[in-house]
Amino acid sequence: MKQLLSATLDGINAKKVEVEAAFTKGLPAFGIVGLASSSIQEAKERVKAALLTNGFSFPPLRITVSMSPSDLLKTGSHMDLAIALVIALQNENIDLEDFYVFGELGLDGRLKDTRSIFPILLSLRNQKLITKAIVPTESLEKLSMIPGITYIGVENLFEAIAVCKKEQPPREIEATPIDGETIEVGEVNYFFIKDYPEDFLDVKGQEIAKRASLIAASGMHNMLMEGSPGCGKSMIAKRLQHILPPMSLEEILQANQYALLGNEEPIFEPKRPQRSPHHSASKPSIFGGGSHHAKIGEVALANSGILFFDEFPHFSKTVLEALREPLQDYKVLISRVNSKIAYDTKFMFIAAQNPCPCGNLLSSIHTCRCSDLEIKRYKQRLSDPLLDRIDIYVQMQESSSEDKPSISSSSMHKEVIKAFIQQMKRGQKHLNGKLDEKEIEKYCILDNEAEQVLYKAVNSFGLSHRSVANVKKVSRTIADLEESKEIEKRHILEALSFRRRS
């Protein structure tokens, strides 16, 4: 046997690793070379115990296991099986060049799943480097979500050796179906769940905020809610997650890949993530970091879902200003001496804030206790470039005893799905809120009256180039909710009504 293929994570991408072994004359020893981390060096003891338990006798020779490329740092216990197989099958004439091998070994030879196997296989599949893999049986349930790979599940080392020698037929597995509802648009399946544990029927009044929430969810637009304490800002933010657009299989897989990289259990449901870091959270915890290796942060874990900042102005200035890059470029780059990693950040940003430090500036009942200087300082914590990246601004209404529920999450979700279908039928790769400049020119077509209204708004309000783009994207979503091909005057006017006034 010449070599086996395995892989290691380099940031969020997997890199192929070739594992081979040599038996040479000399004092009996067992060594691993090729820039292997301590977790792989520890594999020697697990591999020894597993091989001896399964009837393998070590020859009185020096055993050297090499992992190439030698300049790539290899980490993870998932390489145990590959190391054990190249030793156990050294004298066998077996060709496994098309197979990748993964699995952690117990001392008795039992194979175990590891958190890194799923993100590695997903990355290899996206790079079109893999078609077949030998994996632990207990990994099959989640790995079967990744299409395009033939899996051979094995319980232990003895069974893996038997499969390699073709003494035992491999287990056949079927792809695991996604739970929930399915719609097909342009030969692509999208998935969603009709489950509303927190319903918009619980939100009484706030009709403008509900309308803004529907528009924001339909196009994944960034939204800022400002209002007195207890008016329903957090209630609305929590309910938005359940009415978001359907997800493609790729989005579901990537969300679970990021969850595993964040040491969280994957949930293979078409449910977009929601992250709500506290305002005291550190910059590395939100954006990712680490002293040696770049670790994933909240903005990446929120990718394809919602990032919610409650008490928006109370976040540190460094966090607020650093937020501008992922909101604009939809990526965050973490640079360290040993690694540089870019994470996708196509999340829907939702923020909530009080109008002043005491929260009563807009109240007609309670008296504001803040001085003009305190209010000014509070407002100045949010810079104009940051606020310019928020598409929809809502000033919440004060709560009243006459407020009543008006619309359910189920009804809102139907409207969101209708708008989603309109966007996908146009051939968009991204939802309206995440369109780039070229896509805005292609998909956000205004009729003559709408063009004139927007032109007047630019001159009257001094809208920046980014603000104009945001208005077009929001009006495009409003038009999609009405199933209108072109953006009309009323769509532009409603989009302008959600612009923040300086």
UniProtKB/TrEMBL annotation:
Residues 199-402 form the Magnesium chelatase ChlI-like catalytic domain. It holds the Pfam family Mg_chelatase_C. Residues 408-499 form the Mg chelatase-related protein C-terminal domain. Residues 268-289 are annotated as: Disordered. InterPro entries: CHLI-like, Mg_chelat-rel, Mg_chelat-rel_C, Mg_chelatse_chII-like_cat_dom, P-loop_NTPase, Ribosomal_Su5_D2-typ_SF, Ribsml_uS5_D2-typ_fold_subgr. One of its GO terms (molecular function) is ATP binding. Coiled coil: none annotated. Gene3D superfamilies: 3.30.230.10, P-loop containing nucleotide triphosphate hydrolases. This is Magnesium chelatase family protein. It comes from Hydrogenimonas thermophila.
